[in-house]
Specification:
heterodimer, A: 447 residues, mainly beta, 4-stranded antiparallel beta sheet, B: mainly alpha, 6 helices, 0% strand, elongated, IER (chain B), Immediate early response gene 5 protein (chain B)
């Protein structure tokens, strides 16, 4: 036991050395549940870790509930497609929570090919005092049983049990990029590069194809589906984004196959910004409906945009995330960074939007005040209870003391996945293999 | 001239990415390959004025990047001798000289996306 402890100690300090990161530990998705009580993360190794918020302590009313590990399980394993001689990665692409309908929690997790429904239950009591079995479960000698007793439930240490309830396999030829649970709580959709399927949560052996953009001749392929989401209130509406930068809103009541969109949201390209890489940087990497259902948020390589469902011609707001990278697109193409898919998030009241960037920076934009802030998720700047200091990237001209120059940005430290608590100002930031959870101080200002 | 060198360099980088995607874990990523092929097309369009230079250079690039894996697309031709010499000089990546199977004019007309698919 002593030896094991020593090994664990060695491993721990090894991992705290920032230059070494096990690829399997890289976080690939982060998602709060509908109440914000639970936070799920998925990683490249196919594992899911669920954190639970501790109830606020009455003794220390100023300390808000913190998140502790609640459960860890292996969701997906690497697989091999023998027909195509392809390895299927176990990396968790997306996690979506189902609305809670009873004491158990449920979530969907997906890798490139298979979606799984997991049920998470708690056990904090166990029956004791069986008549026929002893404490260890062995059958008793019946001659020793002289009276009958009613087994009673006695408290035990909390045990969290996770079990796979459904496995939705063989629905996708291409790589799944998103899943979204419908507001009807009965169906959900999964999208790959060329198709979107509609599933019933209780039926695993079939799904309906609702979008198919695969051309008859693959040489005619010009765009792929990059993300999709159901409308938060209207169970017949969903949106999907494309690699060309457009959004399509589809109505499932209109037809069984929603290849014809109800609305097409597209902004004409600015010809002055044209380069070899224009198509890449306009590809939408994430789309999210606002909580109100009135707006959509999209992220492409350099900007986040807010779209009004009632206006297809252009976004109503555009925010520059890191425009200083525009002159560096060639080297970002060479290093593959230009293909990074950043996610975006709304806060609970749809007044602030957030997205990640490089150098472990993440950005928040206040839609009302038009102020924005750049913050950093790193161990050095994140002592518990410390207030995050706003950061600045200088692009030439006056340089303040703590500014970072564009050339010193670390492009290996990228924040692709972020999540915002549905009601409170609590955010979860995934920085490679580390998860940061930040809570807002009541009177903090945006600079 | 500098712009054309840049376009040329982008073509080489793009071809390398398409090749590397074959050996990446998890299979070929359709989205990324589509984007790379669009960049390849844009970069090639910049070079339409200097066809001759580009094609010789392009084929040498293809051979040096793909090496023997490209043999499916190439066959021996009188012009092939010249390309083989270039391949041998171009670097350690050229495992063996390629063989050109289609005439140079056909190679020039093939769209980048088709070329990538054939190379797969």
């Amino acid at each position: 036991m002593g030896e094991d402890t020593d090994t664990r100690k060695i491993n721990h300090s090894f991992l705290r050395d920032h230059s070494y990161v096990t690829e399997a530990d890289i976080i690939s998705t982060v998602e709060f549940n509908h109440t914000g009580e639970l936070l799920a993360t998925g990683d490249k190794g196919g594992r899911v870790v669920i954190f639970q918020r501790e109830p606020e302590s009455k003794n220390a009313p100023h300390s808000q509930g913190e998140y502790d590990v609640y459960s860890t399980f292996q969701s997906h394993e690497p697989e091999f497609d023998y027909l195509k001689s392809l390895e299927i990665e176990e990396k968790i692409n997306k996690i979506k929570w189902l609305p809670q309908q009873n004491a158990a929690h449920s979530l969907l997790s997906t890798n490139d090919k298979t979606i799984k429904l997991w049920k998470i239950t708690e056990r904090d009591k166990r029956p004791e005092g069986y008549n026929l079995k002893d404490e260890e479960g062995k059958l008793k000698d019946l001659s020793t049983v002289t009276s009958l007793q009613v087994p009673v439930l006695k408290p035990m240490d909390l045990m969290v049990e996770v079990s796979p309830r459904r496995i939705f396999a063989n629905g996708h030829t291409y790589h799944i990029n998103s899943i979204s649970v419908n507001s009807d709580c009965e169906t959900y959709m999964s999208a790959d590069d060329l198709r979107i399927n509609l599933w019933h949560l209780a039926i695993t052996d079939r799904s309906f194809n609702i979008v198919d953009i695969k051309p008859a001749n693959m040489e005619d392929l010009t765009e792929v589906i990059t993300a999709s989401e159901f409308h938060p209130h209207h169970c017949n509406l969903f949106v999907y984004s494309s690699s060309k930068g457009s959004l399509r809103l589809c109505d499932m009541r209109a037809a069984a196959l929603c290849d014809k969109h109800s609305k097409l949201f597209e902004e004409p390209e600015d010809p002055s910004n044209r380069s070899f890489f224009s198509e890449i940087i306009s590809s939408v990497s994430d789309v999210k409906f606002s909580h109100s259902g009135r707006y959509m948020l999209t992220r492409d390589y350099l900007t986040v945009k807010v779209w009004d469902l009632n206006m297809e011609a252009r976004p109503i707001e555009t925010y520059q995330v890191h425009d200083y990278l525009r002159s560096k697109l060639c080297s970002l193409y060479e290093s593959d960074c230009i293909f990074d898919k950043f996610e975006c998030a709304w806060n609970g009241s749809d007044s602030v939007i957030m997205t990640g960037a490089y150098n472990n920076f993440f950005r928040m934009f206040d839609r009302n005040t038009k102020r924005d802030v750049t913050l950093e998720a790193s161990r050095e700047s994140s002592k518990p209870r410390a207030v995050l200091k706003p950061r600045r990237v200088c692009v030439g001209g006056k340089r303040r003391r703590d500014d970072i120059s564009v050339d010193s940005l670390d492009f290996t430290k990228k924040i692709l996945h972020t999540a915002w608590h549905p009601a409170e100002n609590i955010i979860a930031i995934a920085a490679t293999n580390n998860l940061y959870i930040f809570q807002d101080k009541v009177n903090s200002d945006m600079h | 001239m500098e712009f054309k060198l840049e376009a040329h360099r982008i073509v080489s980088i793009s071809l390398g990415k398409i090749y590397n995607s074959r050996v990446q874990r998890g299979g070929i990523k359709l989205h990324k390959n589509l984007l790379v092929s669009l960049v390849l097309r844009s970069a090639r369009q910049e070079d339409t004025d200097t066809d001759e230079e580009m094609e010789t250079g392009n084929v040498a690039n293809l051979i040096s990047i793909f090496g023997s894996s490209f043999s499916g697309l190439l066959r021996k031709s009188p012009a092939g001798g010249r390309e083989e010499e270039e391949a041998e000089e171009s670097g350690p990546e050229a495992a063996e000289p390629g063989q050109i199977c289609c005439d140079k004019p056909v190679l020039r007309d093939m769209s980048p996306w088709s070329t990538a698919i054939v190379a797969f």
